[in-house]
Amino acid sequence: MPDRSPGERPPTPDRGPRPPASDGGPWEGAAGRLSGLGVSQGRAAGPMIRLADPPELPAPRPVADPGAEAATVAKALAAVAAELNRRALAAGGEAAEILEALAMIAEDPMLLEEAERLTGDGHDAAHALDAAFAKHREALAALGGYLGERAADLDDLRHRAIAAALGLPMPGLPSPGHPYVLVATDLSPADTAGLGPDVLALVTEHGGPTSHTAILARGRGLPAVVACAGVMDLADGTVIGVDGGTGEIAIGLTESETAEVGQAEDARRARLRTSRGPGRTADGHPVRLLLNIGSAADLERDAAQADAEGVGLFRTEFLFLDRKQAPSFEEQVAAYADVFSGTEQVVVRTLDAGTDKPLPFLGLPQEQNPALGVRGLRVDRLLPGVLDTQLDAIAEAARSTGAEPWVMAPMVTTVGEASDFARRARARGIGRVGVMVEVPAAALRAGRLLQEVDFLSIGTNDLAQYTFAADRQHSALADLLDPRQPALLELIALCAEAGRRAGKPVGVCGEAAGDPLLAPLLVGLGVTSLSMAPVCVPAVREALAGLTLDECRDRAQAALD
Ligand code: PEP
Ligand code: MG
């Protein structure tokens, strides 16, 4: 994409329902369409369900019949418990235990008694529940320790109970008992990580292409569309088709069209499953194709199918997104060792907490401008023990498995930060130390950084965010975040050239690496590896195999020009 001159309008994404297109294809019979940004390849079709926001507590109303309010209270708490038990049954395993424990809290007779008593004092059902939950929460918090931390769980139960009392849809992830397309205003990474197997696809009204929710969806191979205006206005149960490549949403598909979409998607996945072997251009120039993962489970599920050459980005913070208590040293060792035993080469990224990936257990202070605040490596300034413990755990996991992981830090800005990180990692016996290039200042000093570390990994998601001063989650700025922008490509070229001079690897691990149109261009700029969600590997492998290195360079030059 070329730079735009001042005053020129950015391309306006096609938005809002419109009549069916006449170009045939699987969406031909749709009654209407919406469009957003496709962020995770694949198609799916099914009934949609909206993720409800927490209910707003209306102004208290005068109570004429306290008995009726008390009955509403009891019914609401019972409905919450029933919903959680139903989800537990569907989830099984550890998730079931957690959901059952929550259901038991909703059924706690003391909670019910307190809320009923409050209705007797003249409170309506919703306010009685609100006050009873607040009291319960306070009592738990006062206990401190593990039970104190469970106090936050009560908030979810409170929202659910109040919604039930007000006759509103229950907030939180739905569990209708059949496959569905999840539609939401926005989704947190923790919501996305907790999605069950009954979710066919994701569509959100907000969000950008490199938001962590999009990344998690891609990691799971779930078709996803973000920045889709109007989708929350559709009724629950509407059968929609989702194209995670084009960003198109077709409204009102018939049963046979829905089945057709499923069959076509199965066929596409089967075709890509046959793609094998190391990454090479048509004339044999090697490009390592690596995986972005968040846990050993990602590896177990997808690595064999992708047939990649290792893991290029292990996002360790994804292991602990919903944790309210810090993971212990032993727990970290076990989680890292699981990944090290699953594949030969792993690049581990130390915790990248902050902004859209808050780690509650860190207890970081609220910030005015979190993307420019204490995130990534910068957390070490406030909480030095966290990085040291993690490096110890990585080193211990390496020793116990015999693996030789490469370790890199996120959000490195200065040469001083890089050299301090390298010193601390090497002191623990970690052999290959690198840094991510996500901040323009780091890209501009790539040559100097490579005097301190063994490799660079370019995080194009954040590098675009910080180069163009455009929030990576902001749906209205998505065009600015397009990694084809020459300014971003120039920064990548600087890093690749520094790597070539130093004889050290420089890879890309941002979402750009998994785009089959962009991957050849990145190779043309000189990057030596591409790390991506496992589902992206086959298409990128195919794209590289179709072009010589010179053709990749021509494409890169054309984009720079
Ligand atoms: C990036 O910024 O490109 C990157 C790979 O890191 P993350 O998306 O996890 O911030
Ligand atoms: Mg990043």
TrEMBL record:
Function in brief: General (non sugar-specific) component of the phosphoenolpyruvate-dependent sugar phosphotransferase system (sugar PTS). This major carbohydrate active-transport system catalyzes the phosphorylation of incoming sugar substrates concomitantly with their translocation across the cell membrane. Enzyme I transfers the phosphoryl group from phosphoenolpyruvate (PEP) to the phosphoryl carrier protein (HPr).
Lineage: superkingdom: Bacteria
Cofactors that this protein relies on: Mg(2+)
Region of interest: Disordered: 1-42
Domain Phosphotransferase system enzyme I N-terminal: residue ranges: 36-150
Subcellular location: Cytoplasm
Protein name (database record): Phosphoenolpyruvate-protein phosphotransferase
Regions of compositional bias (Basic and acidic residues) in chain numbering: 1-17
Membrane-crossing residue ranges in chain numbering: none
Domain PEP-utilising enzyme C-terminal: 278-546
InterPro entries assigned to the protein according to its UniProt record, in alphabetical order: PEP-util_enz_mobile_dom, PEP-utilizing_PTS_enzyme, PEP_util_AS, PEP_util_C, PEP_util_CS, Phosphohistidine_dom_sf, PTS_EI, PTS_EI-like
